[in-house]
Amino acid sequence: MLQKYVKEQYYENLRNFKYNGQNFSILYNWILGDIAQFVVDHIPKTVAPNVITITGFCTLLSSYLLSLYLNPMFDQGLPQWASLYITLTIFIYQTLDNADGKQARRTQQSTALGMLMDHGSDCTAAWITGQLYLSAFKIAFTPFSMLTAIGVGFGGFFFGVYCQQHTGVFQLGVINGVDEGLPVIQLFFLITALNSSDFWLNQIEIFNGINLQYNKILLLITIGACTITIAQFCYPVFKLMNWNIIKILNSLHLPIAVVFTFVSLIYLSPTNVLSKWFHIYMLTVGLQWSKIINIWQLAIITKENFNQFSFTWLITLGTIIINLYSHYFTSDGLCYFDEVKLIFTLLAFSLLSYFHCITSIVTQLCEILDIHAFSIKQKY
């Protein structure tokens, strides 16, 4: 039942893979790296690095599931204690995310599977954090906020992998959305824990009687930080392409397709479905997004050719788009299939395909590399 994602002729590339990453972050090199090292120094050498990765991710995932339970429609604020819990889980996630690589080097367990699980978790954590953002800060599902959530949740990590594919290096800048961005988000959640979600509905006068809600200011700060991060990733790639617009656009099929899908839903849905169900659409597309990013990472590791569209990806986006445009051909002006029922059906499909993909990749890589995923097989 499991799929083979690595062809036999690429096994040797997988075994010989060496991760090439650089982190110039001021905060990481002065503070966060030392915190992670302190944690690693107190972890037994018998603990596999992937256990640290999954523990950190599951901690963050618990915050997301809690927010869905407390605020299932994302139309209310979160209790102050829940915001404090999210603050702590983001800190734990970031710390363990920095610690897993240090543990891998400490125990001589650095493998392609470790990088894949680390970056795969980071990819999913990016859009999960975006969802928490919407839930806690009482941000309405306006076109502006929804497109911001898509850009931040999906864009940042995509362009990191995009840069890695073309330059061979996963590089984080002096100020980046991971090392500097997550502590800022933790600060926002801490403020919410101290003041409640309603705090972000307050307004401040900018100039000449123009007022902005605090949560709108948060969005603007987030957009600015994400833009800087993406620009740092894109500059070396665009330079390699000699700033050729055709080549650049041709290399960005995936984000263009996602933006087209959500823009179409925002402006063409006859029931304005995203005004209530944006978080479910985001979850459905996010699972397929994480799946394709994992496959992309694997292709970088094995040096295989990569196609930005998988079969399940085409089914998910294709079904949403075809159903959306069907309302032009129905007698009542509504989509052929109910948009809410359809997205929950696609959500179940995305969950199954995502877990099937992850299980297949982990199983195959453990066989090829002769390792265990969550325990240390060789002596350190």
Q: What characteristics describe this protein?
A:
380 residues, transmembrane, two-stranded antiparallel ribbon, CDP_ALCOHOL_P_TRANSF_CS, mainly alpha, Ethanolaminephosphotransferase, Four Helix Bundle (Hemerythrin (Met), subunit A), two-stranded parallel ribbon
Layout of helices and strands, plus pairs?
Layout: H1 11-15, E1 21-23, H2 26-41, H3 49-70, H4 80-106, H5 112-136, H6 143-167, E2 170-172, H7 181-195, E3 203-207, E4 210-213, H8 214-240, H9 245-250, H10 253-268, H11 274-302, H12 311-325, H13 339-369
Parallel strand pairs: 1-2
Antiparallel strand pairs: 3-4
Structure characterization notes:
There is one protein chain. The protein is mainly alpha-helical and 380 residues long. It has one domain: CDP-alcohol phosphotransferase transmembrane (TM) domain (Four Helix Bundle (Hemerythrin (Met), subunit A), Up-down Bundle). Helix content is 68%, strand content 4%. It has 13 helices and four strands. It has helices at 11-15, 26-41, 49-70, 80-106, 112-136, 143-167, 181-195, 214-240, 245-250, 253-268, 274-302, 311-325, 339-369, and strands at 21-23, 170-172, 203-207, 210-213. The strands form two sheets. It has a two-stranded parallel sheet. It has a two-stranded antiparallel ribbon with strand order 3-4. β3 (203-207) and β4 form a beta hairpin. It is globular and about 60 Å long. The two termini are 34 Å apart. The mean pLDDT is 90.
Strand-residue fraction? under 5%
CATH topology: Four Helix Bundle (Hemerythrin (Met), subunit A)
What is the assigned CATH homologous superfamily?
CDP-alcohol phosphotransferase transmembrane (TM) domain
What is the class in the CATH system?
Mainly Alpha
If you compute it from the alpha carbons, what radius of gyration comes out, rounded to the nearest whole angstrom? 21 Å
Average pLDDT level = 90
Physical arrangement of strands within the biggest beta sheet: 1-2
As residue ranges, the low-confidence spans are: none
Helix run count: 13
Based on secondary structure, the structural category is: mainly alpha
CATH structural architecture: Up-down Bundle
In oligomeric terms, what are we looking at? Answer: single chain
Q: Report the helical percentage.
A: 55-70%
Secondary-structure element sequence? HEHHHHHEHEEHHHHHH
Total tally of structural domains: 1
> So what's the overall shape?
globular
Largest beta-sheet details: 2 strands, parallel
Distance between the termini: 34 Å
Q: How many E strands?
A: 4
